[in-house]
Amino acid sequence: MYDAVLFDNDGVLVELIDIDRIYDGVRATFAEFGVEPSSDEVECLVGVSPEELVRICRRHDLDAREFWRRRDANVSRIQRQAVDAGEKSPYDDFDAVERLASSRPAAVVSNNQQATVDHIVESYGMSFFDAYYGRQPTVESLRRKKPSPFYVERSLRELDVTDALYVGDSPTDVVAAERAGIDSAFVRREHRRDAELPTEPTYEVGSLHELEGRLG
Q1: Which fold has domain 4-15+88-215?
Q2: Which residues touch 58 (CB under 8 Å, ≥6 apart)?
Q3: pTM above the 0.90 mark?
């Protein structure tokens, strides 16, 4: 049905880790700079906007670019350790991904760090993906996160396709697909049971096996 299929990573291909582990990485970064953050600041620096990041760094007289580089390195390290420990592994329906990718190009498009995405692809033998994109550890990369279509569109250009499906598990995935002019599939896993979507996806499924059946 499609010339290519693109997949979000966390929550679609591989399991999420406890958010407290991510908060630990943020706290560790503040500690490197000798700062004791508030709970609100720690929570804000997960899913942060560039403007919010700059405001927090100014409050503590920190260089935003250096702080964010180290924050991303710490959070990526924690996630890569979780992968190595088998705590962030592919979902049970991952076998459907390889079958969907066997007859068309496929890619990963994630808001996670590029280093994290690279490690997941390498660790779990996902060499069948033709491209895989995550963020660079820069403040500028925050503007390119979904719902921005930046990395989705980059993948489409690299795969040289226009008729593609983007498979995600969050409202921002559905919006990014719409903005890129392609169809979307929303996987309503347990952690997204109550998620409300701002726009209607092309498909809504409970698993990747179900999506495979819908695509035929």
Answers
A1: Rossmann fold (3.40.50)
A2: 64
A3: yes
